[in-house]
Amino acid sequence: MAIGDHAYTRVIRGLKITLPLVALVLLSTMFLLSKKVDPTAAIALSDHAFRAKIERSQLSNPNYDGTTGSGESMSVTAQSARPDPEIEGKAYGQLVNADINLENGEVMTVAADTGVVDEAQDLVILNGNVHIITTDGYDFKTSQLTSLISKVEGESAGSVAGFGPPGTLDAGKMFVRTDDDTGNLHLLFTQGVHLVYTKPKEE
Predict the structure, then answer these.
(1) pTM here?
(2) Distance of alpha carbon 83 from alpha carbon 30, whole angstroms
(3) pLDDT, tens digit (0-9, with 9 covering 90-100), for 127-158
(4) CB of 178 closer than 8 Å to CB of 148
(5) What ranges do the domains of the chain cover?
(6) How many CA atoms lie less than 13 Å away from 40 in the CB half-sphere?
(7) According to a count of CB atoms within 10 Å of the terminal CB, is the N or C end of the chain lower?
(8) How far apart are CA 83 and CA 55, in angstroms?
Protein backbone atom coordinates (compact mmCIF):
# COMPACT_ATOMS: atom_id res chain seq x y z
CA MET A 1 0.00 0.00 0.00
CA ALA A 2 1.34 3.47 -0.84
CA ILE A 3 2.12 5.83 2.03
CA GLY A 4 -0.44 8.35 0.79
CA ASP A 5 -3.22 5.74 0.69
CA HIS A 6 -2.40 4.53 4.21
CA ALA A 7 -2.30 8.03 5.69
CA TYR A 8 -5.48 9.08 3.88
CA THR A 9 -7.34 6.01 5.16
CA ARG A 10 -6.26 6.73 8.77
CA VAL A 11 -7.36 10.37 8.51
CA ILE A 12 -10.80 9.52 7.11
CA ARG A 13 -11.28 6.82 9.73
CA GLY A 14 -10.33 9.26 12.47
CA LEU A 15 -12.73 11.93 11.25
CA LYS A 16 -15.62 9.45 11.30
CA ILE A 17 -15.17 8.50 14.97
CA THR A 18 -18.27 9.31 17.01
CA LEU A 19 -17.78 12.31 19.27
CA PRO A 20 -17.15 11.32 22.91
CA LEU A 21 -17.47 14.00 25.48
CA VAL A 22 -17.24 16.37 22.56
CA ALA A 23 -13.63 17.40 23.00
CA LEU A 24 -11.98 14.12 23.89
CA VAL A 25 -12.46 12.45 20.54
CA LEU A 26 -10.88 15.45 18.93
CA LEU A 27 -7.76 14.68 20.90
CA SER A 28 -8.00 11.14 19.58
CA THR A 29 -8.14 12.39 16.02
CA MET A 30 -5.15 14.65 16.50
CA PHE A 31 -2.99 12.04 18.20
CA LEU A 32 -3.69 9.49 15.49
CA LEU A 33 -2.75 12.10 12.92
CA SER A 34 0.71 12.12 14.48
CA LYS A 35 1.24 8.90 12.53
CA LYS A 36 0.53 10.63 9.24
CA VAL A 37 3.41 10.99 6.80
CA ASP A 38 3.67 13.04 3.61
CA PRO A 39 0.48 12.21 1.64
CA THR A 40 2.14 13.23 -1.62
CA ALA A 41 4.85 10.60 -1.29
CA ALA A 42 4.60 7.77 -3.82
CA ILE A 43 7.15 5.33 -2.42
CA ALA A 44 5.57 2.05 -1.31
CA LEU A 45 6.90 0.57 1.93
CA SER A 46 6.33 -2.80 3.55
CA ASP A 47 4.11 -2.81 6.65
CA HIS A 48 7.18 -3.41 8.81
CA ALA A 49 9.10 -0.48 7.33
CA PHE A 50 6.11 1.83 7.57
CA ARG A 51 5.49 0.86 11.20
CA ALA A 52 9.14 1.48 12.05
CA LYS A 53 8.92 4.91 10.45
CA ILE A 54 5.85 6.07 12.37
CA GLU A 55 7.15 4.65 15.66
CA ARG A 56 10.00 7.17 15.48
CA SER A 57 7.72 10.07 14.59
CA GLN A 58 6.69 12.89 16.91
CA LEU A 59 4.92 16.13 16.12
CA SER A 60 5.99 19.32 17.88
CA ASN A 61 3.28 21.92 18.47
CA PRO A 62 0.74 20.08 16.30
CA ASN A 63 -2.61 21.66 15.53
CA TYR A 64 -5.74 20.35 13.87
CA ASP A 65 -8.81 22.22 12.63
CA GLY A 66 -11.87 20.45 11.29
CA THR A 67 -15.44 19.34 11.81
CA THR A 68 -16.70 16.37 13.80
CA GLY A 69 -19.05 13.77 12.38
CA SER A 70 -21.96 15.42 14.22
CA GLY A 71 -21.22 18.90 12.85
CA GLU A 72 -19.24 20.72 15.56
CA SER A 73 -16.23 22.70 14.35
CA MET A 74 -13.12 22.41 16.48
CA SER A 75 -9.48 23.32 16.89
CA VAL A 76 -7.04 21.04 18.75
CA THR A 77 -3.46 21.86 19.72
CA ALA A 78 -0.73 20.23 21.81
CA GLN A 79 2.88 20.80 22.69
CA SER A 80 3.66 17.38 21.19
CA ALA A 81 1.96 14.17 20.05
CA ARG A 82 3.45 10.74 19.35
CA PRO A 83 2.31 7.15 18.70
CA ASP A 84 3.13 4.33 21.11
CA PRO A 85 6.17 2.43 19.75
CA GLU A 86 4.81 -0.91 20.96
CA ILE A 87 1.01 -0.73 20.86
CA GLU A 88 -0.84 -0.15 17.60
CA GLY A 89 -3.63 2.41 17.91
CA LYS A 90 -2.27 4.00 21.10
CA ALA A 91 -0.88 7.53 21.21
CA TYR A 92 0.17 10.24 23.67
CA GLY A 93 -0.07 14.03 23.79
CA GLN A 94 1.49 16.70 25.99
CA LEU A 95 -0.24 19.94 27.05
CA VAL A 96 -3.34 19.31 24.99
CA ASN A 97 -6.06 21.89 24.36
CA ALA A 98 -9.32 21.65 22.40
CA ASP A 99 -11.82 24.36 21.50
CA ILE A 100 -15.18 23.04 20.29
CA ASN A 101 -17.96 25.13 18.77
CA LEU A 102 -21.20 23.42 19.75
CA GLU A 103 -24.27 23.48 17.51
CA ASN A 104 -26.17 25.65 20.00
CA GLY A 105 -23.56 28.39 19.63
CA GLU A 106 -21.66 27.70 22.84
CA VAL A 107 -17.93 26.99 22.93
CA MET A 108 -16.32 24.36 25.15
CA THR A 109 -12.61 24.34 25.96
CA VAL A 110 -10.88 21.28 27.42
CA ALA A 111 -7.22 21.35 28.48
CA ALA A 112 -4.93 18.88 30.27
CA ASP A 113 -1.27 18.24 30.98
CA THR A 114 -1.31 14.94 29.08
CA GLY A 115 -3.64 12.78 27.02
CA VAL A 116 -3.68 9.10 26.04
CA VAL A 117 -5.70 7.53 23.23
CA ASP A 118 -6.19 3.74 23.14
CA GLU A 119 -8.23 2.53 20.18
CA ALA A 120 -8.18 -1.12 21.28
CA GLN A 121 -9.69 -0.22 24.67
CA ASP A 122 -12.02 2.39 23.13
CA LEU A 123 -10.70 4.99 25.59
CA VAL A 124 -9.41 8.54 25.74
CA ILE A 125 -7.78 9.53 29.05
CA LEU A 126 -6.82 13.07 30.05
CA ASN A 127 -4.47 13.44 33.02
CA GLY A 128 -3.24 16.32 35.14
CA ASN A 129 -5.02 19.63 35.69
CA VAL A 130 -7.94 18.72 33.46
CA HIS A 131 -9.83 21.97 32.94
CA ILE A 132 -13.27 22.24 31.31
CA ILE A 133 -14.70 25.67 30.48
CA THR A 134 -17.89 26.59 28.63
CA THR A 135 -19.01 29.99 27.37
CA ASP A 136 -22.29 29.69 29.28
CA GLY A 137 -20.39 30.04 32.53
CA TYR A 138 -19.26 26.59 33.69
CA ASP A 139 -15.69 26.02 34.84
CA PHE A 140 -14.60 22.69 36.36
CA LYS A 141 -11.30 21.04 37.20
CA THR A 142 -10.35 17.43 37.96
CA SER A 143 -7.20 15.31 37.97
CA GLN A 144 -8.30 12.74 35.38
CA LEU A 145 -11.11 12.38 32.87
CA THR A 146 -11.83 9.19 30.91
CA SER A 147 -14.21 8.79 27.99
CA LEU A 148 -15.18 6.18 25.43
CA ILE A 149 -14.21 6.83 21.83
CA SER A 150 -17.28 5.17 20.35
CA LYS A 151 -19.96 7.10 22.26
CA VAL A 152 -20.49 10.09 24.51
CA GLU A 153 -19.87 8.47 27.89
CA GLY A 154 -17.23 9.58 30.35
CA GLU A 155 -16.36 10.05 34.02
CA SER A 156 -13.80 11.60 36.30
CA ALA A 157 -11.44 9.31 38.19
CA GLY A 158 -11.92 11.29 41.37
CA SER A 159 -13.18 14.56 42.76
CA VAL A 160 -14.18 17.59 40.71
CA ALA A 161 -14.55 21.22 41.71
CA GLY A 162 -15.64 24.38 40.01
CA PHE A 163 -18.43 26.84 39.49
CA GLY A 164 -21.27 27.75 37.18
CA PRO A 165 -24.42 29.89 37.07
CA PRO A 166 -25.96 28.07 40.10
CA GLY A 167 -22.88 28.66 42.27
CA THR A 168 -19.73 26.81 43.35
CA LEU A 169 -19.76 23.02 43.42
CA ASP A 170 -17.52 20.14 44.39
CA ALA A 171 -18.19 16.40 44.30
CA GLY A 172 -16.42 13.08 44.63
CA LYS A 173 -17.16 12.07 41.05
CA MET A 174 -18.61 13.35 37.80
CA PHE A 175 -20.30 11.38 35.01
CA VAL A 176 -20.93 12.65 31.50
CA ARG A 177 -23.83 11.40 29.39
CA THR A 178 -25.96 12.60 26.50
CA ASP A 179 -29.73 12.56 26.22
CA ASP A 180 -30.75 9.99 23.60
CA ASP A 181 -33.70 12.12 22.52
CA THR A 182 -32.23 15.62 22.48
CA GLY A 183 -28.50 14.93 22.21
CA ASN A 184 -27.86 17.47 24.97
CA LEU A 185 -24.84 16.92 27.20
CA HIS A 186 -25.56 16.19 30.87
CA LEU A 187 -23.19 16.26 33.85
CA LEU A 188 -24.07 14.07 36.85
CA PHE A 189 -22.29 14.77 40.14
CA THR A 190 -22.19 12.11 42.88
CA GLN A 191 -20.40 11.15 46.11
CA GLY A 192 -20.66 14.01 48.55
CA VAL A 193 -21.96 16.79 46.32
CA HIS A 194 -21.55 20.22 47.92
CA LEU A 195 -23.21 23.20 46.25
CA VAL A 196 -23.01 26.78 47.48
CA TYR A 197 -25.85 28.58 45.75
CA THR A 198 -25.19 32.03 44.33
CA LYS A 199 -28.23 34.26 44.07
CA PRO A 200 -28.51 35.84 40.61
CA LYS A 201 -27.77 39.56 40.52
CA GLU A 202 -30.83 41.72 40.13
CA GLU A 203 -30.81 43.89 37.04
Answers:
(1) 0.68
(2) 11
(3) 999 998 888 788 999 999 988 766 667 899 99
(4) no
(5) 3-141
(6) 0
(7) C
(8) 6
